[in-house]
Amino acid sequence: MSIADRTTQTTWNGSLAKGSGKLSKSSSTALDGLSLTWASRTEAPGGKTSPEELLAAAHSSCFSMALSLKLGEHKLEAERLEVTATVSLSDVNALPTIDRSALTVRGKVPGASEQQFATIVHEAAQLCPVSRLFAGANISVDAALLQS
Question: I need a labelling partner for 121 at 20 to 30 A (CA). Which of 15, 98, 106, 128 fits?
């Protein structure tokens, strides 16, 4: 049984190199109207998005939620979490492949030691559904507590 289903439609017009796409019918409507092109994916974004950027948003937000949950299980609460995801499109065996997501995690967590934070970050990595979706990819996490 599904916990949640979300939908977004992409309408693409034209060739890969000269065409463009637009997102619509997103469940929240938050993505509606976002444009994408091959150039915005592989060169300069130019105000347009890409699948990699959308995956990075999914991974960073999902990991933030998983980490917040795991901190709570350890009777800790983050004052601030900053999670940045960089999702990479690479040439793997002559095929464009999304092969990694690098997470940078910085947290201001009163009462947590660096070692405890690292342990909890590892627990969050095992829990995050997007991390599990990327299970075949190289996912790295660089985590540290923020100083006051």
Answer: 98
Q: Which amino acid is at 59?
A: H
Domains of the chain: 1-49 (no CATH), 51-145 (3.30.300.20)
Instruction: Decide if 119 contacts 71 (C-beta within 8 A).
Output: no
Q: How many angstroms separate the CA atoms of 114 and 106, rounded?
A: 11
Give φ, ψ of 113 to 5 degrees: -90, 165
- List all residues 6 or more positions away from 94 whose beta carbon is below 8 Å from its beta carbon: none
Tokens of 103: 């997470």
Distance CA 94, CA 8 (A): 29
Q: Per-block average pLDDT, block size 10, for the chain (148 residues)?
A: 93 96 96 96 94 96 98 98 96 93 96 97 96 86 89
